[in-house]
Write a sequence for this structure.
């Protein structure tokens, strides 16, 4: 109870919390987390925080252009590393001496660091806390859901690609959310076709042999938030630590990201209003 009260006190100034999950690695979960953080922070009136709890594969520092940055400690706790004045980031990547260092930790040590991130980081007043998680349904996921149960979580955004091999693991992730009573905001399908920039013809690089995310969402009664097409600029922007939304504002992928962000915002505001009415 004392630990729960401590976490509740630290996170009481966080208005909305969104977890980004995927059943499988390499489907673009961290890319979506970064785009979501950049997109929300485009409104300078909002304060956004991005928490990377992928302990063994922290890619957020590079994607946000923060490689080599260090975490500083003050009287009020750890200070996040800021991309913009209204966009703060925290990751285990800031605690490593080199980006190539391997984090070889057992579960309890990982769980301890996740708890420390939630308890000791001085986020301040936050409109959206985006949590980028590792793939799967293991220690880190159970820990973050358990620790955040002391506060308030709007829900999870689940990321997939169109192939059945990816959808299989996403079904497990959806089942995990149901079991731990984590609301599902919706599913995002990444790498959903490729539009040639010259001829404008669309090709299915990863053909959806079983109907893709759209069919899966219909079968499982969850929302499809949107489909993000392949765009080589996304990878280049991530490698350079730049915002893809700013670098390619006219891209079909940017339009898709913006629609997804708007739908997530609408869900969170509606969820918040319902909770206030219940109180």
């Amino acid at each position: 109870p004392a630990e729960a009260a401590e976490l509740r006190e630290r996170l009481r100034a966080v208005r909305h919390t969104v977890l980004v999950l995927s059943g499988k690695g390499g489907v673009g979960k961290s890319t979506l987390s970064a785009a979501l953080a950049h997109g929300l922070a485009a409104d300078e009136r909002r304060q956004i925080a991005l928490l990377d709890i992928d302990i063994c594969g922290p890619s957020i520092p590079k994607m946000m252009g923060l490689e080599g940055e260090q975490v500083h400690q003050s009287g009020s706790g750890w200070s996040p590393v800021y991309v913009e004045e209204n966009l703060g980031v925290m990751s285990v990547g800031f605690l490593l001496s080199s980006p190539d260092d391997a984090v070889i930790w057992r579960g309890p040590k990982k769980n301890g660091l996740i708890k420390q991130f939630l308890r000791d980081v001085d986020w301040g007043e936050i409109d959206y806390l985006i949590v980028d998680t590792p793939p799967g349904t293991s220690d880190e996921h159970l820990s973050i859901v358990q620790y955040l149960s002391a506060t308030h979580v709007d829900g999870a955004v689940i990321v997939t690609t169109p192939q059945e091999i990816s959808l299989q693991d996403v079904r497990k992730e959806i089942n995990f959310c149901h079991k731990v009573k984590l609301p599902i905001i919706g599913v995002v399908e990444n790498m959903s076709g490729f539009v040639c920039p010259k001829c404008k013809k669309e090709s299915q690089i990863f053909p959806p042999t079983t109907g893709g995310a759209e069919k899966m969402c219909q079968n499982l009664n969850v929302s499809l938030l949107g489909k993000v097409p392949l765009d080589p600029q996304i990878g280049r922007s991530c490698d350079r630590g730049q915002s893809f939304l700013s670098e390619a504002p006219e891209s079909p992928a940017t339009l898709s990201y913006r629609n997804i962000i708007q739908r997530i915002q609408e869900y969170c505001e509606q969820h918040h209003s319902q909770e206030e009415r219940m109180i």
Remarks:
- The domain at 2-278 is CATH 3.40.50.300 (Rossmann fold).
- The longest helix spans residues 252-278.
